[in-house]
Amino acid sequence: MRFLGNIEAKVDAKGRAFLPATFRKVLQASGEEALVMRMDPHQKCIVLYPESVWNSEMDEMEKRLGRWNRAEQQIYRQFVSLVELVTLDGNGRFLVPKRYLQMAGINQNVRFIGVRNTIEMWNLEELENQFIGAEEFSDLFEKMMSETESEEPK
Fold this sequence. Notes:
This protein is α+β, with helices and mostly antiparallel strands. The chain has helices at residues 21-29, 51-64, 70-81, 98-104, 124-130, 134-151; strands at residues 6-10, 16-18, 34-39, 46-50, 83-87, 93-95, 109-115, 118-123. The protein has a six-stranded antiparallel sheet. The chain is globular. It starts with 5 loop residues before the first strand and ends with a helix. The relative contact order is 0.21.
């Protein structure tokens, strides 16, 4: 499952957003009915995970955690404390709780971006602040890809 797209949308006064049709089609084709919503731990955006993707990521995280390690359990607890299970209504809308809108700085205009097997929801201005210039992007992309290439078996 892979989400592609960069789509501008709106959140209504009740905090509901339409999931863009291109993303709904991917969910439907994969048999997914629910999304898991969480704030990104590194950036000021909301991340929507198909439920099966979230469950796989949690399985991986739990394998890395020591059950009796207090610090690791606290990190895990804090990580999952800001999680909401959301379902789409018949019109493809879902409710974004106010605390998420506030944490992400989202008012009315929002941008959905497909990122691998998740969907990110951004405040338009915040997203623009995250992007780097074209030349810097080109340099970093080239470096990243050449490092990846050198790690692959020949």
